[in-house]
Design a protein that fits this description.
The protein has about 90 residues and is mainly β. It contains two helices and six strands, in the order βαβββββα. It has one domain.
Length: about 90
Amino acid sequence: MRYRKKPIEVEAFRLRRDMVDAPDWLWGLVGEWSALSVSGPRRLRVDTPAGVMTAGVGDYIVREATGEVRPWSAAAFEAAHEPAGER
């Protein structure tokens, strides 16, 4: 038997260096921008039920209908999601 994943709307924000228009829900659920290495890019710490994950510029931070927040790489997010309009 075959199954199709039910369409579920999520809120998402694509990280940028300035974070100027980041949604309010994001600020209370993520850690600080941190330099993980001297030569590497800055990363954002995200506390998830699975532990601390990190996201970089261009990655998406997704808040699911359950309230769970986690980072997604741009490629994975764009393969699994399509725009549903503004709220």
